[in-house]
Amino acid sequence: MNDVAQPAVRPANPNFSSGPCAKHPGWSVAALAATPVGRSHRAKIGKARLEEVIDRSRKVLGIPEDWRIGIVPASDTGAVEMALWSLLGARGIDVLSWESFGEGWASDIIKQLKLPDVRHITAPYGKLPDLSQVDCDRDVVFTWNGTTSGVRVPDGDWIAADRKGLTICDATSAAFAMDLPWDKLDVVTWSWQKVLGGEGGHGMLVLSPRAVERLESYKPAWPMPKIFRLTKGGKLIEGIFKGETINTPSMIAVQDQIDALTWAEAEGGLSALTARSQANLAAITRWVEKSDWAGFLAGDPASRSSTSVCLEIKAPFFAALSAEDQAAAAKKMVGFLDKEGVAFDIGAYRDAPPGLRIWAGATIETSDIEALLPWLDWAYGRMRAEFAPK
Q: Which CATH architecture has domain 268-387?
């Protein structure tokens, strides 16, 4: 494998980062020409653009009409934190984690909010926790898709329809690429820079009627920073869900998101976006099945992500390397690909096992995935020449 010839075909778009993700095919900076720069987001035109993002998001994702959709600051992180700080404490909590972002939410709940009745249900990278352990009469916090592990929940069947608790779902690398069962979810969050390849800094917060009822009937015991406040005088601040943002948004980023949503609609909506991502995963799967060195970090196909596809190096010589050398070897591969300009930002997340992470969401063309895969073999061959025993 260490004498693989350099491939002749290169991906047309080498951007395979898992966030910010690639722009949609055909994107151009000209799409931003209609941005009302220098105008207040509270002006009629600014508020209308923000409402357009909300309305188009509802349409593409099929979000029920009686659910509130808000644009909030600080990306998906801000949206999740708003939910955690505003809603938790009324019931016991089950928080699930099987990668770094779920671990972060668990840490905030246990160490920052210091809530007493918390069950932390975990699994290592590449695995999914035992979902049968979850008690849906408690509040449940989880990621739909583990961006840094490539492991997702397969469906919402494990969530009780008659639950008493709330389900709080970080769906940032699942929204617009996977089918979310809205009747099973009470709070859903995502960020613009993920599946649709928008600009960073803005989050989306979706609340079910059950979540709104909790907000209006329960007041947390801790002080609430202004940026997290969703109620006033015991009532939901409805303006947040009609385009009146808590802080000042970038109207350039807003215009870019409108462009991305318009593209999504033109492609055929959620079903078409999901199919694009699944086709990308299928191309990688066909290659992995023939590979003598690469494997999926997510061993179970039922819980394998179609967006953040995480690969591990399974060659025996690699397993025999020290942890330090494994990390260095994987980094070498990433460096070779970067230097050739065929794949940018595809190294495994810093807390994950050494390997590769390829974004395969809806904005990625399958032809670019197919062009990339021979380059992975080439980079592996060069790495093996340096690290395998002579």
A: Alpha-Beta Complex (3.90)
